[in-house]
Amino acid sequence: MDLAFTAEERKFADDVRAFVKANLPAEVRDKARRLGLGFAMATRLLLLFSLSWVMGLTADLFHLAGNGISGRDLVLLLGGLFLLWKASHEIFVEVEAREQDGPPAEAVIPGGADDTAAARGITRDEVINDVLLAAQPSKRFATVEELGELALFLSSPAAASITGTAISMDGGWTAQ
Question: I need a labelling partner for 140 at 20 to 30 A (CA). Which of 26, 54, 98, 171 fits?
Answer without folding.
Answer: 26
